[in-house]
Specification:
Number of strands of chain B: 6
Distance between the termini of chain A: 52 Å
Strand order of the largest sheet of chain B: 1-2
Helix content of chain B: 55-70%
Number of strands of chain A: 20
Radius of gyration of chain B: 34 Å
Helix content of chain A: 40-55%
Largest sheet of chain A: 5 strands, antiparallel
Largest interface: A-B, 32 and 28 residues
Structural class of chain A: alpha+beta
Oligomer: heterodimer
Shape of chain B: flat
Radius of gyration of chain A: 30 Å
Number of helices of chain A: 18
Largest sheet of chain B: 2 strands, antiparallel
Chain lengths: ~600, ~625
């Protein structure tokens, strides 16, 4: 599974060291300032510059003096209930029907040849739920208030002693509640779909007398191999089956059990990754090699040299990891020569203490790409203490101070081993899959709340369709913001910004050709406009959440327990956006004087 | 009518009704008539029927594909472009399982866009598979590429290019990769996959694609895909491909299959049978009408017949026009230079070879226009001469086209190769070299040397009978074996080495040095080579035969004299009665005892405790004592 460096941070690291707090503060300032400016502009148009300023200032005063302190949960609840009922009346429950239809025909679109059906199924249900729920949130949140304002039904509320904060919060809460209800239904259905979809059984088919190994029947385009005496089959398509002995009519028989290993939530412990040069020396510039792939995610170490990848793990204790060390790897291999085709590229693994005085024997392994390669390190193992060979203890000697280093080198000349920080981890047990699945849905819920908050905020001052477009733009920016950064940086080389690109399309000029309109001034003006537009997009991008980083479907699909710290971080970010959008929404609503 | 809203509504309704008329005329669906024929319908429907591009005509209608296309609400292009970008990203970042899933979605969106199937199948089978370190995973991804193409054929049932690619992938990717040994083995034993292929339409797989071990062989399975593509084209489907390359694949595949089983160590009648089928297949290919880019059709097998026809027609024409030609020549004489006049006036017997060539050139120069000559004839002969001149011109044209297309596929070489490989000498040479290589790997130098030395003698015979083989891949294999032999026995290859001439020729040729003598020797060998048909059943020096040495020569274990190899003339008394001066003495000796025919199994010579039977052997060829 791919993990970005920031995903390894604990909540504390993110909040205090990596500017989570500062970012939130700055974001709050930006959003509030933006809200203030827009509110002022609206008020200015309506009342003139002086009066407008007075109105906005009064609103700020009201917020802190009356509206916020006197906000009533009961009234929020009442408005939320109304929003809920309104949503039900608008037949949003049809989403559930759409989802059921989607699940019914999912088999048409899911690749039956997938190497890991569990991953495919989980990704599918999480992604489809995510899109559906986000669209639902978008639809619900953006049309409700404008419709009320347009139909003047809002006056039936504003004539009551209801505050603007309560209207905004009530709407958000109401829509979030209906969204949550639907999300729960979808979650349960998804879980059943995944579990039932993956469920299958095999029979024993063959057993060779020579090596006492055999094959199961073909099921779901795969079959397993097993050896007599083994307790489980081999792993195919990301799962295995237990083999058990049963007695039928007094006769002993082997039976293949249900699917195992497909739905799991491993708890990995990640370390810090560093590299050495070819002589085994560690320097700040040593970040591994690029073997020519476009992707820089994995870095490589050269074979038959002392070049090493070193993972340093903290808190390596028996209490946390059990009696032995379960090292899980997903290394890549890169060959410059074909060499021995049959044998995979080999590497060695060394365990070392943090002081570098105690290390294990070199443990040779053959790389297994694109699958989880587990190595069990027993408690007692052969090694060296200050260069003398002797038996060492994993926890008492190697990790005496709670730290341990795992060193990986490539053994074969001319070949390379590739790795990223997430490609080697220690397994600290498992958590129930259903719990991880739940966390995945919590994650979707958080995204939904953000979208609803944005939708309600925009709907306080825009008409329904415009609010929807604005919210959708926020959503698109949130998903594809990182792509716009690339376009912004490479604007000159990739055919310019939106205006230039449009002109190029009309004049059928490829991005590689000179943007020659025959008028230098015109070209400069267009490019300046493009720069301004792209810069604005960049600024706006900073104001919306990065939905990609809020996603967690990979964790669930790849069977990795979603880090609690990461989930907490996402909750805090969501809360931050919720607060900001509520305040801005409040300002807008107050400025319109509907709820004054 | 005073209500403007009502008037506006009426106007809208009227406009809609008007717009419906052209829509109806254009889009009315076709209907089934009483006689069961489908026809009628709107303009679009008629066009679809006429060009057979309706969904049902192109391929299978898949509800998944249809619903996905509908779900994009007319933005299929945008969705497809986005998915392509995603696929590219997944490939770059090595998310291969997601790549495969995305490709499926692309294919559902653009099921009739053949290039999608072609390029993405290539992506899976070649680019992605290459990224895996474990050859079994690589094989699995090659299969994914093949499966992707198979799926493409279901959606596009009249696109033979997809079947052609299927043939290519199944043969070339599995049979020619660096890991071909492993891939072929995996393929042979992949029973579940064979069943899938049968279900996918290769119903004749169990009967027509089995290798020597009675398991499906990738080359033969690939051939079935090629044959399917041919069937489609024969049924009227169009393919934009050179016909030689298109139709040549199936017979080539048969040859590669024979090559492959020989590499696997199957060097007996099964290999011989495979080559005979390849030969037959090549002959059928030669009889097929091939459409040329000039617009005419040629049969590659007709080359010799056309040449004979040309020669006969020219002879007849020249006989008919002798006087006219002489008259014309006389007319041209004043304009000839001195050298031309000299050769023209002398009879051939008084000219040397160079002058004879010059004379022919001069005659061609002045008498090339046969129509001009024909027109000089009296009326009663003129028509016949003109007909002959036309026939010669057309035949020459066809010969030129045939020759070019033969060269495109190296027709003559493969024709010769398929025949040469059926020869017992070639089979014996291959088997001995194979056995020797295996023995070298086992470090049994003594036994390996014996095999090698017999192999050299047989190869020498092969190269003399089929000199073109000295230029081909098999010759490279022989040279590699010679290197191994040289290292193992520490032998320097002087003139006594059986393949000395071959080595010498290849050294000069590979060194890219023009050596007139060498080329002439090669050409001479070509001329002297016996006809294939008769050479095919020439006997070989078999495993149990003892390498013959001339009388008085000390037997040396690792060296073979040139005399023994038959490369230099032997004394008349030692020369056995044979018309073939190029056959080695070893073969002559062997042939005097046994003649291995087509049906005769190998290795069944009568062997005594002292070695092979020696009855009837000339005194000079008595076997040396077995070291």
């Amino acid at each position: 599974m791919r993990l970005e460096p920031n995903q390894f941070w604990t909540f504390g690291e993110w909040f205090f060291i990596h500017n989570g707090l500062l970012d939130a503060f700055l974001l709050a300032l930006v959003l509030i300032a933006l809200g203030f400016v827009v509110s002022y502009l609206v008020a200015m148009v309506r009342y003139g510059p002086g009066e407008g300023f007075y109105v906005v200032s009064k609103n700020i005063r009201d917020l802190f003096r009356t509206d916020l302190p006197k906000t009533s949960l009961r009234r929020i609840g009442a408005i939320a209930k109304l929003a809920f009922m309104e949503a039900v009346r608008r037949k949003v429950l049809a989403v559930v029907a759409i989802f059921i239809v989607g699940l019914m025909f999912a088999g048409w679109y899911l690749d039956p040849d997938s190497d890991n059906p569990a991953r495919l199924y989980i990704s599918f249900v999480l992604a489809s739920t995510n899109y559906l729920v986000l669209l639902l949130g978008l639809y619900l949140s953006t049309f409700s208030l404008p419709a009320d304002i347009k139909n003047k039904t809002i006056y039936t509320i504003t004539t009551k002693p209801v505050r603007a904060t309560e209207i905004v919060l009530g709407r958000i809460a109401g829509f979030a509640f209906i969204g949550t209800t639907i999300l729960m239904v979808l979650g349960v259905m998804s879980y059943i779909f995944v579990v039932r979809g993956l469920s299958h059984s095999h029979e024993m088919e063959t057993l060779a007398s020579i090596d006492q190994s055999g094959e199961t029947t073909l099921e779901g385009r795969h079959r397993h191999r097993y050896t007599l005496g083994a307790t489980q089959t081999d792993s195919q398509k990301g799962h295995y089956h237990p083999i058990r002995e049963i007695e039928v009519n007094g006769e002993k028989r082997l039976e293949v059990g249900p699917v195992r290993g497909a739905l799991e939530a491993r708890v990995p412990v990640y370390g810090e990754l560093s590299f050495t040069d070819r002589d085994g020396k560690r320097g700040t510039k040593d970040v591994g090699l690029n073997v020519g792939y476009i992707s820089e995610y994995q870095r490589y170490v050269a074979g038959a040299t002392l070049m090493s990848a070193i993972w340093t793990f903290d808190d390596v204790t028996q209490q946390r990891l059990g009696d032995q060390l379960r090292i899980e790897m997903t290394l890549a291999a890169f060959r410059t020569v074909k060499g021995d085709i049959v044998t995979p590229v080999s590497g060695i693994m060394i365990l070392r203490n943090s002081a570098g005085t105690i290390e294990s024997d070199r443990r040779r392994f053959l790389v297994r790409e694109f699958e989880l390669d587990e190595h069990i390190i027993p408690r007692k193992l052969n090694g060296f203490v200050d260069g003398r060979a002797q038996e060492i203890d994993l926890f008492d000697d190697l990790a005496a101070d709670g730290k341990i280093e795992v060193i990986i080198r490539c053994e074969d000349t001319g070949q390379y081993l590739g790795m990223s920080q997430a490609d080697l981890s220690l397994r600290a047990g498992d958590r129930p899959f259903i719990y991880n699945f739940f966390k995945g849905y919590v994650n979707i819920w958080l995204q939904m709340v953000i979208i609803i908050s944005f939708g309600v905020m925009f709907s306080t001052f825009l008409s329904g369709p415009v609010a929807m477009i604005a919210t959708m733009s926020a959503l698109v920016l949130g998903f594809f913001g990182s792509t716009t950064s690339i376009y912004f940086e490479n604007m000159k080389n990739s055919g310019g910004g939106p205006v230039e690109a449009f002109i190029r399309i009309v004049t059928q000029k490829g991005s590689m050709l000179d943007f020659d309109l025959g008028n230098q001034t015109l070209e400069t003006v267009i490019q300046k406009i493009d720069y301004g537009l792209m810069y604005t997009v960049q600024l706006l991008k900073g104001a919306v959440p990065d939905f990609n980083s809020l996603g967690a479907s990979d964790f669930v699909a790849y069977g990795v327990d979603l880090f609690d710290g990461l989930l907490l971080r996402q909750i805090v970010i969501t809360f931050g956006y919720f607060v900001m959008t509520t305040i801005v929404g409040y300002f807008f609503l107050k400025t319109r004087e509907i709820a004054a | 009518m005073n209500n403007p809203f009502f008037v506006r509504k009426l106007f809208y309704v009227a406009a809609m009704a008007l717009l419906l008329i052209p829509l109806y005329l254009l889009g009315q669906p076709s209907t089934r008539k009483a006689d069961g024929q489908i026809g009628g319908g709107g303009q679009l429907s008629e066009l679809r029927d006429r060009y057979e591009i309706g969904q049902a005509d192109i391929g299978q209608i898949d509800p998944a594909s249809e619903s996905m296309r509908l779900a994009t609400l007319g933005m299929r292009g945008i969705a497809a472009a986005w998915l392509w970008q995603k696929a590219e990203y997944y490939k770059e970042e090595k998310f291969y399982d997601r790549l495969a899933a995305t490709l499926n979605q692309i294919a559902l969106l653009q099921p009739h866009f053949v290039k999608v199937w072609e390029s993405q199948a290539h992506n899976l089978a070649y680019n992605v598979s290459h990224d895996f370190d474990d050859y079994r995973q690589r094989y699995a991804w090659v299969k994914k590429g093949i499966d992707f193409l198979v799926k493409g054929t279901e959606y596009n049932q009249r696109q033979p290019i997809l079947q052609w690619h299927l043939g290519k992938y199944t043969t070339q990717k599995i049979g020619r990769s660096d890991e071909k040994l492993q891939f072929r083995e995996l393929f042979r034993n992949d029973t579940d996959y064979h069943n899938e292929l049968i279900a996918d339409g290769l119903t004749n797989l169990p009967s027509e694609a089995l290798g020597p071990d009675r398991k499906p062989d990738n080359w033969l399975v690939g051939r079935l895909w090629f044959l399917k593509a041919y069937d489609l084209v024969d049924a009227g489907a169009i393919i934009n491909k050179n016909e030689v390359h298109f139709y040549g694949e199936a017979p080539w595949t048969q040859m590669y299959f024979a090559e492959a089983i020989e590499s696997d160590g199957v060097l007996d009648d099964r290999a011989r049978f495979a080559w005979s089928r390849a030969s037959e297949s090549w002959r059928e290919f030669g009889n097929r009408d091939i459409l040329t880019t000039w617009g005419d059709s040629v049969k590659l097998n007709n080359f010799d017949r056309l040449n004979s026809l040309r020669v006969e027609s020219i002879t007849e024409f020249e006989q008919l026009t002798t006087k006219a030609r002489e008259r014309l020549l006389q007319e041209y004489k004043p304009s000839m230079n001195e050298s031309e006049l000299y050769v023209i006036e002398k009879p051939d017997s008084e000219l040397d070879a160079e002058q004879r060539i010059f004379k022919q050139t001069t005659l061609d120069k002045y008498l090339s226009n046969r129509f001009e000559i024909a027109r000089m004839l009296p009326t009663d002969e003129r028509l016949k001469a003109l007909t002959l001149a036309t026939l010669i011109r057309e035949t020459e044209e066809t010969i030129k086209h045939t020759d070019q297309y033969r060269n495109l596929c190296n027709f003559a070489y493969w024709e010769m190769r398929a025949k040469a490989e059926q020869s017992p000498v070639t089979l014996a040479a291959r088997r001995q070299m194979y056995e020797a290589d295996k023995l070298i790997d086992r470090a049994d130098l003594s036994a390996a040397t014996k095999y090698y030395e017999k192999a050299w003698l047989n190869w020498n015979a092969v190269f003399h009978r089929y000199p073109e083989m000295m230029l081909e891949e098999i010759a490279d294999e022989v040279r590699n074996a010679i290197k191994r032999y040289g290292i193992a026995t520490d032998t320097e290859f002087d003139e006594s080495f059986a393949l000395y001439e071959f080595e010498n020729f290849r050294n000069i040729r590979d060194g890219n040095r023009a050596d007139e003598m060498n080329n002439r020797r090669f050409m001479q060998m070509l001329l002297d080579a016996p006809q294939w048909e008769s050479a095919m059943n020439e006997p070989a020096l078999l495993d149990n035969d003892v390498i013959p040495l001339p009388e008085g020569m000390d037997p040396k274990p690792s060296k073979v004299t040139k005399e023994a190899s038959g490369l230099i003339p032997v004394k008349p008394e030692a020369q056995p009665s044979s018309n073939d001066s190029l056959t080695t003495k070893a073969e002559i000796q062997s042939s005097s005892e046994n003649t291995l025919g087509d049906d005769q199994p190998m290795n069944n010579l009568e062997v005594t405790a002292d070695g092979p039977a020696t009855v009837g052997r000339p005194p000079s060829l008595q076997p040396p004592t077995d070291e």
